Protein backbone atom coordinates (compact mmCIF):
# COMPACT_ATOMS: atom_id res chain seq x y z
CA UNK A 1 0.00 0.00 0.00
CA UNK A 2 1.19 3.51 -0.74
CA UNK A 3 1.49 6.20 1.91
CA UNK A 4 -1.36 8.72 1.78
CA UNK A 5 -0.63 11.93 0.04
CA UNK A 6 -1.26 14.59 2.70
CA UNK A 7 -1.19 17.43 0.20
CA UNK A 8 -3.71 15.59 -1.95
CA UNK A 9 -6.12 15.27 0.97
CA UNK A 10 -5.75 18.96 1.81
CA UNK A 11 -6.16 20.18 -1.72
CA UNK A 12 -8.79 17.72 -3.01
CA UNK A 13 -8.59 15.17 -5.77
CA UNK A 14 -5.65 14.57 -8.08
CA UNK A 15 -5.63 15.83 -11.65
CA UNK A 16 -7.74 13.60 -13.89
CA UNK A 17 -10.12 12.64 -11.09
CA UNK A 18 -13.64 11.92 -12.37
CA UNK A 19 -15.14 11.94 -8.89
CA UNK A 20 -13.94 12.52 -5.37
CA UNK A 21 -15.83 12.07 -2.13
CA UNK A 22 -15.77 11.06 1.51
CA UNK A 23 -17.31 7.83 2.76
CA UNK A 24 -17.06 5.89 5.98
CA UNK A 25 -15.96 2.31 6.44
CA UNK A 26 -18.99 0.09 5.68
CA UNK A 27 -18.41 -2.20 8.66
CA UNK A 28 -17.46 0.17 11.45
CA UNK A 29 -19.08 3.34 10.11
CA UNK A 30 -16.20 5.23 11.73
CA UNK A 31 -13.06 5.45 9.62
CA UNK A 32 -13.22 8.15 7.01
CA UNK A 33 -12.36 7.00 3.52
CA UNK A 34 -11.65 9.32 0.59
CA UNK A 35 -12.52 7.75 -2.76
CA UNK A 36 -11.13 9.15 -5.99
CA UNK A 37 -12.31 7.76 -9.29
CA UNK A 38 -9.82 8.06 -12.13
CA UNK A 39 -10.23 6.70 -15.67
CA UNK A 40 -8.73 3.31 -14.89
CA UNK A 41 -8.39 3.19 -11.14
CA UNK A 42 -10.27 3.73 -7.88
CA UNK A 43 -8.09 5.23 -5.15
CA UNK A 44 -9.06 4.48 -1.56
CA UNK A 45 -7.40 6.63 1.07
CA UNK A 46 -8.01 5.98 4.73
CA UNK A 47 -7.72 9.37 6.37
CA UNK A 48 -8.18 8.18 9.92
CA UNK A 49 -5.39 6.46 11.78
CA UNK A 50 -3.50 4.48 10.57
CA UNK A 51 -3.56 6.30 7.23
CA UNK A 52 -3.17 4.25 4.08
CA UNK A 53 -3.82 4.46 0.37
CA UNK A 54 -4.69 1.83 -2.25
CA UNK A 55 -5.07 2.01 -6.00
CA UNK A 56 -7.63 -0.51 -7.24
CA UNK A 57 -7.31 -1.25 -10.95
CA UNK A 58 -10.68 -0.95 -12.72
CA UNK A 59 -9.52 -3.50 -15.29
CA UNK A 60 -9.97 -6.01 -12.45
CA UNK A 61 -13.45 -4.73 -11.61
CA UNK A 62 -16.63 -6.56 -12.66
CA UNK A 63 -19.15 -3.99 -11.51
CA UNK A 64 -20.58 -1.82 -8.81
CA UNK A 65 -23.95 -1.20 -7.18
CA UNK A 66 -25.56 1.00 -4.56
CA UNK A 67 -28.14 -0.04 -1.99
CA UNK A 68 -29.86 1.08 1.15
CA UNK A 69 -28.93 -0.55 4.47
CA UNK A 70 -31.11 -3.32 5.83
CA UNK A 71 -34.15 -2.73 8.10
CA UNK A 72 -33.67 0.40 10.24
CA UNK A 73 -30.37 1.35 8.61
CA UNK A 74 -30.93 4.49 6.51
CA UNK A 75 -27.32 4.75 5.40
CA UNK A 76 -26.49 4.13 1.73
CA UNK A 77 -23.84 1.65 0.62
CA UNK A 78 -21.56 1.55 -2.40
CA UNK A 79 -20.27 -1.94 -3.33
CA UNK A 80 -17.48 -2.47 -5.85
CA UNK A 81 -16.52 -5.99 -7.03
CA UNK A 82 -12.88 -6.63 -7.91
CA UNK A 83 -11.24 -9.87 -9.09
CA UNK A 84 -7.50 -9.09 -9.04
CA UNK A 85 -4.80 -11.67 -9.72
CA UNK A 86 -3.25 -12.56 -6.37
CA UNK A 87 -1.27 -15.31 -4.76
CA UNK A 88 -3.33 -17.20 -2.22
CA UNK A 89 -0.18 -18.19 -0.37
CA UNK A 90 3.49 -17.62 -1.02
CA UNK A 91 4.18 -20.78 -3.00
CA UNK A 92 1.05 -20.66 -5.16
CA UNK A 93 0.77 -18.97 -8.53
CA UNK A 94 -1.44 -15.90 -8.96
CA UNK A 95 -5.12 -16.44 -9.67
CA UNK A 96 -8.15 -14.15 -9.82
CA UNK A 97 -9.78 -13.79 -6.42
CA UNK A 98 -12.90 -11.96 -5.40
CA UNK A 99 -12.38 -8.78 -3.41
CA UNK A 100 -15.57 -6.91 -2.54
CA UNK A 101 -15.18 -3.32 -1.31
CA UNK A 102 -18.02 -1.62 0.55
CA UNK A 103 -18.28 2.01 1.54
CA UNK A 104 -20.97 3.79 3.55
CA UNK A 105 -22.66 7.17 3.09
CA UNK A 106 -24.51 8.24 6.25
CA UNK A 107 -28.12 9.40 6.16
CA UNK A 108 -28.41 12.90 4.80
CA UNK A 109 -28.77 15.63 7.43
CA UNK A 110 -31.33 17.33 5.19
CA UNK A 111 -34.69 16.08 6.49
CA UNK A 112 -36.39 17.11 3.25
CA UNK A 113 -34.18 14.91 1.13
CA UNK A 114 -33.60 11.58 2.85
CA UNK A 115 -32.60 9.88 -0.38
CA UNK A 116 -29.68 12.20 -1.10
CA UNK A 117 -27.12 9.68 0.21
CA UNK A 118 -28.57 6.82 -1.88
CA UNK A 119 -28.59 8.98 -5.00
CA UNK A 120 -24.97 9.90 -4.39
CA UNK A 121 -24.01 6.22 -3.94
CA UNK A 122 -25.87 5.39 -7.17
CA UNK A 123 -24.03 8.18 -8.98
CA UNK A 124 -20.75 6.62 -7.86
CA UNK A 125 -21.85 3.11 -8.85
CA UNK A 126 -22.84 4.33 -12.33
CA UNK A 127 -19.55 6.18 -12.80
CA UNK A 128 -17.51 3.16 -11.67
CA UNK A 129 -19.48 0.85 -13.98
CA UNK A 130 -18.86 3.25 -16.84
CA UNK A 131 -15.12 3.48 -16.21
CA UNK A 132 -14.96 -0.28 -15.64
CA UNK A 133 -16.39 -0.80 -19.11
CA UNK A 134 -13.96 1.58 -20.75
CA UNK A 135 -10.80 0.60 -18.78
CA UNK A 136 -9.45 -1.83 -21.37
CA UNK A 137 -6.15 -3.59 -21.35
CA UNK A 138 -3.88 -1.74 -23.78
CA UNK A 139 -2.99 -4.94 -25.65
CA UNK A 140 -6.64 -5.41 -26.60
CA UNK A 141 -6.50 -3.81 -29.97
CA UNK A 142 -8.79 -6.19 -31.85
CA UNK A 143 -12.30 -7.49 -31.34
CA UNK A 144 -15.43 -5.99 -29.87
CA UNK A 145 -15.80 -5.61 -26.10
CA UNK A 146 -18.65 -7.83 -24.95
CA UNK A 147 -19.68 -5.13 -22.47
CA UNK A 148 -20.25 -2.81 -25.42
CA UNK A 149 -22.64 -5.09 -27.30
CA UNK A 150 -24.51 -6.92 -24.57
CA UNK A 151 -27.73 -5.82 -22.87
CA UNK A 152 -30.57 -5.47 -22.74
CA UNK A 153 -31.04 -9.07 -23.80
CA UNK A 154 -28.97 -11.53 -21.81
CA UNK A 155 -27.23 -14.86 -21.79
CA UNK A 156 -28.64 -18.29 -22.44
CA UNK A 157 -26.61 -20.36 -19.93
CA UNK A 158 -26.57 -24.13 -20.47
CA UNK A 159 -25.58 -26.31 -17.53
CA UNK A 160 -25.08 -30.05 -17.85
CA UNK A 161 -25.70 -31.32 -14.29
CA UNK A 162 -24.01 -34.62 -15.17
CA UNK A 163 -20.78 -33.22 -16.58
CA UNK A 164 -17.48 -33.85 -14.82
CA UNK A 165 -18.14 -35.12 -11.32
CA UNK A 166 -21.70 -33.82 -11.44
CA UNK A 167 -20.77 -30.47 -9.86
CA UNK A 168 -21.74 -28.04 -12.60
CA UNK A 169 -24.89 -26.82 -10.81
CA UNK A 170 -22.95 -26.31 -7.59
CA UNK A 171 -20.32 -24.32 -9.52
CA UNK A 172 -23.06 -22.15 -11.01
CA UNK A 173 -24.53 -21.50 -7.56
CA UNK A 174 -21.21 -20.82 -5.86
CA UNK A 175 -19.48 -18.69 -8.52
CA UNK A 176 -21.21 -17.86 -11.77
CA UNK A 177 -24.58 -16.64 -10.58
CA UNK A 178 -22.85 -14.14 -8.29
CA UNK A 179 -20.35 -12.96 -10.92
CA UNK A 180 -23.09 -12.36 -13.51
CA UNK A 181 -25.14 -10.45 -10.93
CA UNK A 182 -22.14 -8.34 -9.94
CA UNK A 183 -21.46 -7.57 -13.60
CA UNK A 184 -25.16 -6.78 -14.07
CA UNK A 185 -25.55 -9.33 -16.86
CA UNK A 186 -29.05 -10.82 -17.13
CA UNK A 187 -29.17 -14.51 -17.90
CA UNK A 188 -31.46 -17.49 -17.98
CA UNK A 189 -30.44 -20.98 -16.93
CA UNK A 190 -31.13 -24.04 -19.10
CA UNK A 191 -30.36 -27.30 -17.32
CA UNK A 192 -29.84 -30.05 -19.87
CA UNK A 193 -31.76 -33.24 -19.21
CA UNK A 194 -30.32 -35.62 -21.79
CA UNK A 195 -27.92 -35.99 -24.67
CA UNK A 196 -28.60 -33.57 -27.56
CA UNK A 197 -30.93 -31.49 -25.37
CA UNK A 198 -28.75 -28.38 -25.80
CA UNK A 199 -28.47 -29.07 -29.54
CA UNK A 200 -32.27 -29.24 -29.88
CA UNK A 201 -32.71 -26.08 -27.78
CA UNK A 202 -30.37 -23.97 -29.93
CA UNK A 203 -31.85 -25.36 -33.14
CA UNK A 204 -35.24 -23.93 -32.23
CA UNK A 205 -34.25 -20.92 -30.08
CA UNK A 206 -35.17 -17.36 -31.03
CA UNK A 207 -31.59 -16.12 -31.10
CA UNK A 208 -32.66 -12.48 -31.33
CA UNK A 209 -33.57 -12.83 -27.64
CA UNK A 210 -30.01 -13.54 -26.53
CA UNK A 211 -26.66 -11.76 -26.52
CA UNK A 212 -24.64 -14.97 -26.17
CA UNK A 213 -24.89 -18.71 -25.56
CA UNK A 214 -22.81 -19.80 -22.58
CA UNK A 215 -21.91 -23.36 -21.68
CA UNK A 216 -21.08 -24.38 -18.11
CA UNK A 217 -20.01 -27.96 -18.76
CA UNK A 218 -17.32 -29.89 -20.60
CA UNK A 219 -16.41 -29.38 -24.24
CA UNK A 220 -19.02 -31.96 -25.31
CA UNK A 221 -21.93 -29.62 -24.61
CA UNK A 222 -20.38 -26.79 -26.64
CA UNK A 223 -19.86 -29.28 -29.47
CA UNK A 224 -23.62 -29.87 -29.41
CA UNK A 225 -24.38 -26.14 -29.35
CA UNK A 226 -22.05 -25.40 -32.28
CA UNK A 227 -23.56 -28.21 -34.34
CA UNK A 228 -27.09 -27.18 -33.35
CA UNK A 229 -26.37 -23.66 -34.67
CA UNK A 230 -24.91 -25.07 -37.89
CA UNK A 231 -28.01 -27.24 -38.45
CA UNK A 232 -30.33 -24.23 -38.49
CA UNK A 233 -31.66 -22.94 -41.83
CA UNK A 234 -30.28 -19.51 -40.79
CA UNK A 235 -26.90 -21.03 -39.83
CA UNK A 236 -24.91 -18.19 -41.37
CA UNK A 237 -26.43 -15.69 -38.94
CA UNK A 238 -26.88 -18.16 -36.08
CA UNK A 239 -23.19 -19.08 -35.93
CA UNK A 240 -22.39 -15.40 -35.38
CA UNK A 241 -24.03 -15.61 -31.94
CA UNK A 242 -21.19 -15.16 -29.42
CA UNK A 243 -20.36 -18.31 -27.46
CA UNK A 244 -18.96 -18.44 -23.95
CA UNK A 245 -17.34 -21.34 -22.12
CA UNK A 246 -17.16 -22.00 -18.38
CA UNK A 247 -15.37 -25.15 -17.16
CA UNK A 248 -17.77 -27.63 -15.57
CA UNK A 249 -16.57 -30.91 -17.09
CA UNK A 250 -13.44 -32.93 -16.57
CA UNK A 251 -11.49 -32.02 -19.71
CA UNK A 252 -12.35 -28.30 -20.05
CA UNK A 253 -9.90 -27.86 -22.92
CA UNK A 254 -11.53 -24.80 -24.50
CA UNK A 255 -11.86 -23.09 -21.10
CA UNK A 256 -8.14 -23.73 -20.45
CA UNK A 257 -7.35 -22.36 -23.93
CA UNK A 258 -9.37 -19.19 -23.28
CA UNK A 259 -7.45 -18.70 -20.04
CA UNK A 260 -4.15 -19.34 -21.85
CA UNK A 261 -4.99 -16.57 -24.34
CA UNK A 262 -5.27 -14.07 -21.45
CA UNK A 263 -1.50 -14.45 -21.02
CA UNK A 264 -1.96 -15.07 -17.29
CA UNK A 265 -0.16 -17.95 -15.50
CA UNK A 266 -1.96 -21.33 -15.68
CA UNK A 267 -4.75 -22.08 -13.21
CA UNK A 268 -6.96 -25.10 -12.60
CA UNK A 269 -10.27 -26.11 -11.05
CA UNK A 270 -12.26 -23.31 -9.43
CA UNK A 271 -9.53 -20.77 -10.23
CA UNK A 272 -10.03 -21.60 -13.91
CA UNK A 273 -13.77 -21.18 -13.46
CA UNK A 274 -13.27 -17.74 -11.87
CA UNK A 275 -10.90 -16.73 -14.66
CA UNK A 276 -13.33 -17.83 -17.38
CA UNK A 277 -16.22 -16.17 -15.53
CA UNK A 278 -14.20 -12.95 -15.46
CA UNK A 279 -13.38 -13.26 -19.17
CA UNK A 280 -17.06 -13.87 -19.90
CA UNK A 281 -18.13 -10.70 -18.07
CA UNK A 282 -15.29 -8.53 -19.37
CA UNK A 283 -13.93 -10.24 -22.43
CA UNK A 284 -13.69 -9.49 -26.08
CA UNK A 285 -15.77 -11.14 -28.72
CA UNK A 286 -13.19 -12.83 -30.91
CA UNK A 287 -13.59 -14.79 -34.08
CA UNK A 288 -13.40 -18.55 -33.65
CA UNK A 289 -12.18 -21.06 -36.23
CA UNK A 290 -14.49 -23.96 -37.02
CA UNK A 291 -13.22 -27.15 -38.58
CA UNK A 292 -15.49 -28.98 -40.97
CA UNK A 293 -15.12 -32.72 -40.52
CA UNK A 294 -16.31 -35.25 -43.10
CA UNK A 295 -16.95 -38.82 -42.02
CA UNK A 296 -16.98 -41.84 -44.31
CA UNK A 297 -20.78 -42.24 -44.03
CA UNK A 298 -21.13 -38.78 -45.57
CA UNK A 299 -22.04 -37.20 -42.24
CA UNK A 300 -20.47 -33.87 -41.43
CA UNK A 301 -19.77 -32.27 -38.05
CA UNK A 302 -18.23 -28.96 -37.02
CA UNK A 303 -15.47 -28.91 -34.47
CA UNK A 304 -13.70 -26.17 -32.50
CA UNK A 305 -11.14 -28.14 -30.52
CA UNK A 306 -9.52 -31.35 -31.66
CA UNK A 307 -9.54 -34.49 -33.75
CA UNK A 308 -7.74 -37.51 -32.29
CA UNK A 309 -6.95 -41.05 -33.34
CA UNK A 310 -4.82 -43.67 -31.60
CA UNK A 311 -3.41 -43.13 -28.14
CA UNK A 312 -5.16 -39.83 -27.27
CA UNK A 313 -8.58 -40.94 -28.53
CA UNK A 314 -8.31 -44.26 -26.68
CA UNK A 315 -7.32 -42.52 -23.44
CA UNK A 316 -10.22 -40.07 -23.78
CA UNK A 317 -12.84 -42.75 -24.23
CA UNK A 318 -11.33 -45.31 -21.84
CA UNK A 319 -11.10 -42.66 -19.10
CA UNK A 320 -14.92 -42.34 -19.07
CA UNK A 321 -15.03 -45.23 -16.57
CA UNK A 322 -13.00 -43.10 -14.10
CA UNK A 323 -15.27 -40.03 -14.43
CA UNK A 324 -15.76 -39.83 -10.66
CA UNK A 325 -12.12 -38.84 -10.07
CA UNK A 326 -12.41 -35.72 -12.24
CA UNK A 327 -9.48 -34.49 -14.37
CA UNK A 328 -7.23 -37.19 -12.82
CA UNK A 329 -9.13 -39.66 -15.00
CA UNK A 330 -6.94 -38.70 -17.98
CA UNK A 331 -3.69 -39.26 -16.05
CA UNK A 332 -4.82 -42.69 -14.85
CA UNK A 333 -5.92 -43.76 -18.35
CA UNK A 334 -2.70 -42.39 -19.88
CA UNK A 335 -0.63 -44.55 -17.53
CA UNK A 336 -2.74 -47.62 -18.24
CA UNK A 337 -2.56 -47.14 -22.01
CA UNK A 338 1.21 -46.52 -21.90
CA UNK A 339 1.54 -49.82 -20.06
CA UNK A 340 -0.20 -51.57 -22.96
CA UNK A 341 1.01 -49.38 -25.80
CA UNK A 342 -0.55 -50.02 -29.24
CA UNK A 343 0.49 -49.32 -32.81
CA UNK A 344 -2.19 -48.01 -35.17
CA UNK A 345 -1.95 -48.61 -38.92
CA UNK A 346 -3.17 -45.89 -41.24
CA UNK A 347 -2.52 -43.32 -43.95
CA UNK A 348 -2.16 -39.63 -43.16
CA UNK A 349 -2.19 -36.78 -45.69
CA UNK A 350 -2.42 -33.02 -45.21
CA UNK A 351 -2.33 -29.66 -46.93
CA UNK A 352 0.57 -27.69 -45.40
CA UNK A 353 -0.40 -24.20 -44.24
CA UNK A 354 2.40 -22.66 -46.32
CA UNK A 355 0.67 -23.87 -49.53
CA UNK A 356 -1.38 -20.70 -49.63
CA UNK A 357 -2.90 -21.18 -53.06
CA UNK A 358 -5.91 -23.42 -53.11
CA UNK A 359 -5.95 -26.49 -55.27
CA UNK A 360 -7.79 -26.11 -58.60
CA UNK A 361 -9.08 -29.62 -58.42
CA UNK A 362 -10.28 -29.56 -54.85
CA UNK A 363 -13.84 -28.67 -54.06
CA UNK A 364 -16.12 -30.92 -52.14
CA UNK A 365 -19.34 -30.79 -54.02
CA UNK A 366 -22.45 -31.92 -52.20
CA UNK A 367 -25.99 -30.72 -51.82
CA UNK A 368 -24.92 -29.23 -48.48
CA UNK A 369 -24.59 -25.50 -49.05
CA UNK A 370 -23.19 -24.72 -45.59
CA UNK A 371 -19.55 -23.57 -45.66
CA UNK A 372 -18.30 -25.32 -48.82
CA UNK A 373 -15.11 -27.30 -48.13
CA UNK A 374 -13.05 -25.83 -50.95
CA UNK A 375 -9.87 -27.64 -49.88
CA UNK A 376 -11.33 -31.15 -49.86
CA UNK A 377 -12.23 -33.71 -52.50
CA UNK A 378 -14.54 -36.67 -51.81
CA UNK A 379 -12.98 -39.40 -49.67
CA UNK A 380 -13.14 -41.90 -52.56
CA UNK A 381 -10.77 -39.74 -54.62
CA UNK A 382 -7.03 -39.36 -54.01
CA UNK A 383 -6.00 -36.18 -52.18
CA UNK A 384 -5.10 -33.18 -54.41
CA UNK A 385 -1.55 -32.95 -55.70
CA UNK A 386 -0.42 -30.11 -53.49
CA UNK A 387 -1.11 -32.24 -50.39
CA UNK A 388 1.63 -34.15 -48.53
CA UNK A 389 1.02 -37.89 -48.24
CA UNK A 390 3.15 -39.49 -45.50
CA UNK A 391 5.06 -42.65 -46.20
CA UNK A 392 4.74 -43.72 -42.58
CA UNK A 393 1.91 -46.15 -41.99
CA UNK A 394 2.42 -46.97 -38.31
CA UNK A 395 1.45 -44.45 -35.68
CA UNK A 396 1.04 -44.24 -31.94
CA UNK A 397 -1.15 -41.18 -32.23
CA UNK A 398 -2.47 -38.55 -34.58
CA UNK A 399 -3.73 -35.38 -32.93
CA UNK A 400 -5.08 -32.32 -34.73
CA UNK A 401 -5.45 -29.34 -32.39
CA UNK A 402 -7.55 -26.28 -33.21
CA UNK A 403 -6.99 -24.50 -29.87
CA UNK A 404 -4.08 -24.54 -27.43
CA UNK A 405 -5.24 -27.02 -24.79
CA UNK A 406 -6.15 -30.69 -24.96
CA UNK A 407 -7.21 -30.68 -21.30
CA UNK A 408 -6.98 -28.32 -18.32
CA UNK A 409 -3.32 -29.20 -17.84
CA UNK A 410 -2.30 -30.28 -21.36
CA UNK A 411 -0.88 -27.40 -23.39
CA UNK A 412 -0.68 -29.33 -26.64
CA UNK A 413 -0.40 -26.43 -29.12
CA UNK A 414 1.09 -23.45 -27.24
CA UNK A 415 1.10 -21.19 -30.33
CA UNK A 416 -2.51 -21.86 -31.33
CA UNK A 417 -4.84 -18.88 -31.26
CA UNK A 418 -8.59 -18.71 -31.30
CA UNK A 419 -8.85 -17.77 -35.00
CA UNK A 420 -5.40 -18.45 -36.46
CA UNK A 421 -6.88 -20.45 -39.34
CA UNK A 422 -4.44 -23.27 -38.62
CA UNK A 423 -4.83 -26.95 -37.80
CA UNK A 424 -1.93 -27.81 -35.46
CA UNK A 425 -1.19 -31.39 -36.48
CA UNK A 426 0.92 -33.65 -34.27
CA UNK A 427 1.70 -37.28 -34.90
CA UNK A 428 3.87 -39.81 -33.15
CA UNK A 429 5.25 -42.63 -35.26
CA UNK A 430 5.75 -46.21 -34.10
CA UNK A 431 9.07 -46.97 -32.42
CA UNK A 432 8.76 -44.50 -29.55
CA UNK A 433 9.58 -46.03 -26.19
CA UNK A 434 7.07 -46.01 -23.34
CA UNK A 435 9.32 -43.85 -21.20
CA UNK A 436 9.73 -41.25 -23.98
CA UNK A 437 5.98 -41.13 -24.53
CA UNK A 438 5.44 -40.60 -20.82
CA UNK A 439 8.07 -37.85 -20.89
CA UNK A 440 6.24 -36.18 -23.79
CA UNK A 441 2.95 -36.10 -21.92
CA UNK A 442 4.65 -34.72 -18.81
CA UNK A 443 6.29 -32.01 -20.92
CA UNK A 444 2.91 -31.23 -22.50
CA UNK A 445 1.76 -29.91 -19.12
CA UNK A 446 4.10 -26.98 -19.75
CA UNK A 447 3.79 -26.98 -23.53
CA UNK A 448 7.44 -28.01 -23.90
CA UNK A 449 6.95 -31.41 -25.59
CA UNK A 450 8.43 -30.13 -28.86
CA UNK A 451 11.66 -29.31 -26.97
CA UNK A 452 12.15 -32.96 -25.90
CA UNK A 453 14.08 -33.76 -29.07
CA UNK A 454 11.88 -36.78 -29.80
CA UNK A 455 12.37 -37.85 -33.44
CA UNK A 456 9.06 -39.77 -33.42
CA UNK A 457 7.04 -36.63 -32.64
CA UNK A 458 6.24 -34.44 -35.66
CA UNK A 459 4.40 -31.13 -35.69
CA UNK A 460 2.96 -29.57 -38.87
CA UNK A 461 0.83 -26.49 -39.41
CA UNK A 462 -1.84 -27.47 -41.94
CA UNK A 463 -5.16 -26.29 -43.37
CA UNK A 464 -6.70 -29.65 -44.17
CA UNK A 465 -6.00 -33.29 -43.48
CA UNK A 466 -7.16 -36.78 -44.30
CA UNK A 467 -6.77 -39.84 -42.12
CA UNK A 468 -7.48 -43.38 -43.31
CA UNK A 469 -7.20 -45.95 -40.55
CA UNK A 470 -6.24 -49.36 -41.92
CA UNK A 471 -7.06 -51.45 -38.85
CA UNK A 472 -10.64 -52.70 -38.70
CA UNK A 473 -11.71 -51.25 -35.37
CA UNK A 474 -10.62 -48.27 -33.35
CA UNK A 475 -11.58 -44.95 -31.85
CA UNK A 476 -11.68 -41.49 -33.40
CA UNK A 477 -12.76 -38.51 -31.33
CA UNK A 478 -13.81 -35.02 -32.34
CA UNK A 479 -13.77 -32.46 -29.49
CA UNK A 480 -13.53 -35.41 -27.10
CA UNK A 481 -16.70 -37.06 -28.46
CA UNK A 482 -16.46 -40.41 -30.22
CA UNK A 483 -17.42 -40.32 -33.91
CA UNK A 484 -17.82 -43.13 -36.42
CA UNK A 485 -14.62 -45.01 -37.16
CA UNK A 486 -13.23 -44.95 -40.68
CA UNK A 487 -11.67 -42.57 -43.19
CA UNK A 488 -12.11 -38.96 -42.09
CA UNK A 489 -11.03 -35.60 -43.45
CA UNK A 490 -11.14 -32.04 -42.21
CA UNK A 491 -10.53 -28.48 -43.26
CA UNK A 492 -10.34 -25.27 -41.29
CA UNK A 493 -12.77 -22.38 -41.82
CA UNK A 494 -11.08 -19.35 -40.35
CA UNK A 495 -13.03 -17.25 -37.87
CA UNK A 496 -16.55 -18.25 -38.91
CA UNK A 497 -17.91 -18.44 -35.35
CA UNK A 498 -17.53 -16.06 -32.41
CA UNK A 499 -16.22 -16.72 -28.92
CA UNK A 500 -16.05 -14.51 -25.84
CA UNK A 501 -12.36 -14.72 -25.18
CA UNK A 502 -9.43 -12.69 -23.92
N1 LIG B 1 -28.65 -34.35 -18.11
C1 LIG B 1 -27.83 -35.07 -18.87
N2 LIG B 1 -27.68 -36.38 -18.63
C2 LIG B 1 -26.82 -37.13 -19.34
N3 LIG B 1 -26.05 -36.65 -20.35
C3 LIG B 1 -26.15 -35.35 -20.63
C4 LIG B 1 -27.04 -34.49 -19.90
N4 LIG B 1 -26.92 -33.25 -20.38
C5 LIG B 1 -26.01 -33.32 -21.38
N5 LIG B 1 -25.56 -34.57 -21.53
C6 LIG B 1 -24.54 -35.10 -22.45
O1 LIG B 1 -23.29 -35.26 -21.76
C7 LIG B 1 -22.25 -35.32 -22.72
C8 LIG B 1 -20.95 -34.87 -22.09
O2 LIG B 1 -21.03 -33.56 -21.74
P1 LIG B 1 -19.76 -32.66 -21.49
O3 LIG B 1 -18.69 -32.95 -22.45
O4 LIG B 1 -20.24 -31.28 -21.44
O5 LIG B 1 -19.27 -33.10 -20.06
P2 LIG B 1 -18.06 -34.04 -19.68
O6 LIG B 1 -18.02 -35.21 -20.57
O7 LIG B 1 -18.14 -34.26 -18.22
O8 LIG B 1 -16.85 -33.09 -19.90
P3 LIG B 1 -15.47 -33.36 -20.59
O9 LIG B 1 -15.79 -33.45 -22.06
O10 LIG B 1 -14.69 -32.17 -20.23
O11 LIG B 1 -14.98 -34.60 -19.98
C9 LIG B 1 -22.74 -34.51 -23.88
O12 LIG B 1 -22.71 -35.31 -25.03
C10 LIG B 1 -24.19 -34.15 -23.54
O13 LIG B 1 -25.06 -34.42 -24.60
TrEMBL record:
Keywords, comma-separated and alphabetical: ATP-binding, Kinase, Membrane, Nucleotide-binding, Transferase
Gene3D superfamilies documented for this protein: 2.60.200.40, Probable inorganic polyphosphate/atp-NAD kinase, domain 1 (3.40.50.10330)
The EC number(s) this enzyme carries: 2.7.1.91
GO MF annotation list: ATP binding; sphingosine kinase activity
Membrane spanning stretches: none
GO cellular component terms attached to this protein's record: cytoplasm; endomembrane system; membrane
Family matches, as SMART domains: DAGKc (SM00046)
Subcellular location(s) of the protein: Endomembrane system
GO biological process: cellular response to growth factor stimulus; negative regulation of apoptotic process; sphingosine biosynthetic process
SUPFAM superfamilies referenced in this protein's UniProt entry, alphabetically: NAD kinase/diacylglycerol kinase-like
Nucleotide-binding keyword on record: yes
InterPro entries (UniProt xref): ATP-NAD_kinase_N (IPR017438), Diacylglycerol_kinase_cat_dom (IPR001206), Lipid_Phosphate_FormReg (IPR050187), NAD/diacylglycerol_kinase_sf (IPR016064), YegS/DAGK_C (IPR045540)
Name the record gives this protein: sphingosine kinase
Organism: Cirrhinus molitorella
Amino acid sequence: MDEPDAAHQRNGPAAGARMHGLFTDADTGRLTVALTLLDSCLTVQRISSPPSSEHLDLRDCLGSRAHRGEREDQDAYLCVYFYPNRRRWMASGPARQRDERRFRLPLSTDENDEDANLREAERWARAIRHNTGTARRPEHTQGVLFSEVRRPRGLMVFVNPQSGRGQAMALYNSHIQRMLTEADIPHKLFITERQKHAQDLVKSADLTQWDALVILSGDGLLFEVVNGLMERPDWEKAIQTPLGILPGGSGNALAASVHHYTGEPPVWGEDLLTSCGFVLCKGLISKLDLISIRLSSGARVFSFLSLAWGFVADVDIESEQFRQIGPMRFLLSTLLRIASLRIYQGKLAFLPAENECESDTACFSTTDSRLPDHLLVPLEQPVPQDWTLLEEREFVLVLAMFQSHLGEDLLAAPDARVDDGIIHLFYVTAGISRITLLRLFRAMQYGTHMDCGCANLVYRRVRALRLEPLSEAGVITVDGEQVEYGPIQAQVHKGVARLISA
